[in-house]
Amino acid sequence: MKAIVGTYECKVDAKGRLMIPSGMKKQLPAAEDGFVLKRSVFEKCLELWPMAEWQIMMGKINQLNRFNKKNDLFVRKFMAGVKLVDIDDNGRLLVAKDLMAFAGIQKEIVLSSKINIIEIWDKELYENLLSDEDIDFADLAQEVMGKDTADDNN
């Protein structure tokens, strides 16, 4: 799958439905393939996984030895709150109440691409994360992506 690109603001209605913006919807695989909606591992947001990407991740997780207690706990936590979801004919996605509560989603949200998945954030939480002054993005970028030479592919 090609990378999904973009950050979009939208609203959730009283029933927990959000309209996928057309610019993002055009980048998604066919709606009939389905999606998985889950809690993020590191942040208080949700992740929308196209089914093909989810199946790749499940292949990796299925390699874990579940008789190892840490692996078993990881699988349980990773799968907590997972929901199969569809985008309806009107381009809407229904977010379950338990997931909305986990992510602190109120009314205004941000859909943000994260390479092959989409993060769904409460707008205020997303803005707070981006404006976090404790994180120096330049230092983080250098640490994560910086290489000593242009030939260094690792």
TrEMBL record:
Subcellular location field: Cytoplasm, Nucleoid
InterPro entries reported for this sequence: MraZ, MraZ_C, MraZ_dom, MraZ_N, MraZ_sf, SpoVT-AbrB_dom, SpoVT-AbrB_sf
Keywords noted in UniProt: Cytoplasm, DNA-binding, Repeat, Transcription, Transcription regulation
Gene3D superfamilies listed in its UniProt record: Transcriptional regulator MraZ domain
BP GO terms, sorted: negative regulation of DNA-templated transcription initiation
GO cellular component: cytoplasm; nucleoid
Segments forming domain SpoVT-AbrB: 7-53, 82-125
TM annotation in the entry: none
Molecular-function annotations in GO: DNA-binding transcription factor activity; transcription cis-regulatory region binding
Source species, domain of life: Bacteria
One Pfam family, short name: MraZ
Binding partners and assembly: Forms oligomers.
Family: Belongs to the MraZ family.
Record's protein name: Transcriptional regulator MraZ
Natural source organism: Avrilella dinanensis
